[in-house]
């Protein structure tokens, strides 16, 4: 089943962002915390569930599996999905400009 292009979960977004450089599980957990500026910490159970789903959706692939650790990388489809989600999030922020203008109708 391919990714349908709908809004991503926060976990998916940060996994893809962290996989702009290939990583294995433990490194990936740290990278997610780093790229989210500490806002998101992901435990192994959550991480491997997300990785499994994203691999099935073709957003990530195995770069290496030495039997002890698996190194994941973002695919072209994954990078495209990440960029689409980035543009969607930017549009949400742009649309919120009314809050900054102090519009009392918001």
Protein model, in words:
The chain is of the alpha+beta class. The chain has a single domain, classed as Arc Repressor Mutant, subunit A (Orthogonal Bundle), CATH 1.10.10. It contains 5 helices and 3 strands; from the N terminus they run αβααββαα. Strands 1-3-2 form a 3-stranded antiparallel sheet. The chain is globular and about 55 Å long. The termini are far apart. The model has no long low-confidence stretch (mean pLDDT 90).
Structural class: alpha+beta
End-to-end gap: 39 Å
Helix-strand sequence: HEHHEEHH
Task: Please write the CATH class name.
Answer: Mainly Alpha
- How would you state the average pLDDT, rounded? 90
Number of helices: 5
**Oligomer class:** single chain
Helix content: 40-55%
| Biggest sheet statistics | 3 strands, antiparallel
Low-confidence stretches: none
Q: Total domains, how many?
A: 1
Q: How does CATH name the architecture?
A: Orthogonal Bundle
